[in-house]
Design goal:
single chain, 132 residues, mainly alpha, two-stranded antiparallel ribbon, 6 helices, 2 strands, 62% helix
């Protein structure tokens, strides 16, 4: 039994729209690269080899793309539920900043966050209410 794929006209137009967008971006990128005196072919070859040219390159590509993919999923969930969240990109970039503060052993975090009702001692495994 052989499966036949039939695409509707709207599906074909969607595919054509995305293919045209990719080609347009590549042409604009090639023009910019060429205007700077470099070879667009060598630049595109380096991008492809650097992103999927080896198992290590594929792993690195996945590692760096994952936060953007998860941020995109968060945007889709927010938009589908009718919530407008214009700060998703900022949340993605600012989210990792407090991590060293809470993980550095012996850092007196209560000086900064004590006013919010918590005392956090990163070397310990406890959070206590301020004023105790």
């Amino acid at each position: 039994m052989k499966l036949k794929w039939k695409l509707t006209l709207s599906a074909k137009l969607e595919i054509l729209k995305y293919a045209a967008a990719v080609i347009l971006v590549m042409v604009i990128g090639a023009l910019i690269i060429f205007s700077q005196g470099n070879s667009p072919v060598e630049a595109f070859r380096a991008m492809i080899i650097g992103s999927v040219g080896s198992p290590a390159a594929i792993g690195t590509t996945i590692r760096w793309a994952t936060p953007s993919i998860i941020t995109g999923i968060a945007a889709v969930v927010a938009f589908k539920s009718g919530i407008w969240n214009c700060g998703i990109e900022g949340q993605m970039y600012f989210g990792p900043f407090p991590a060293p503060v809470f993980t550095y052993p012996g850092l007196p975090v209560d000086r900064w966050f004590g006013g919010y009702g918590l005392r956090v001692y990163p070397g310990d495994s406890e959070i206590e209410a301020a004023g105790q």
